[in-house]
Amino acid sequence: MIKLQRITTADTDLYSYMEELMIQSFPSKEYRELEELRKYTDTKTHFYNNIIFHNNMPVGLITYWDFGHFHYIEHFAIAPTLRNGGHGKSVLNHLCQLLKHPIILEVEIPEEEMAQRRINFYQRQGFSLWEKPYQQPPYKVGDNYLPMLLMAYGNLECEKDFDSVKECIYREVYNVK
């Protein structure tokens, strides 16, 4: 059974697990400075930093934002030794039922096989690919914008909602005005 547990930095062991998995799973340009992440975790009430449990064993992490009219998944990772075991599918099914509003996430441009596989995975879970150019703002000073695409689950449409979704993510997640 899948369970999400929201954590804070006071949850020392779980928070350490999350940081280690974040570092293992993402290039450093794809997540904010750890000190800033700790601050967001403890102070931003609409930011959810969660450990994913399967049968009471931690198997991954998922962070998301609640913007009222949609949710934005910022990071999602299953522990490397547990990947390809169905946990990702179970987590997304659970999350899509748990959250009452549409869900947005970013994916890499499908130029490499892993990026295409990721997109296919999300599409199998009911997400649609928005094929409109999108640039992920840098997390760290001196880094560049990263070309990405958005994917959506629920009743959001690329043509109608892209600009407002992008502006909200830029402003709230990346502090770009």
TrEMBL record:
Domain spans labelled N-acetyltransferase: 5-153
SUPFAM superfamilies recorded:
Acyl-CoA N-acyltransferases (Nat)
InterPro entries listed in its UniProt record: Acyl_CoA_acyltransferase (IPR016181), GNAT_dom (IPR000182)
Q: What's a single GO MF annotation on this record? A: acyltransferase activity, transferring groups other than amino-acyl groups
What is the name listed in the Swiss-Prot or TrEMBL entry for this protein? GNAT family N-acetyltransferase
Q: Where does this protein come from, organism-wise?
A: Bacteroides muris
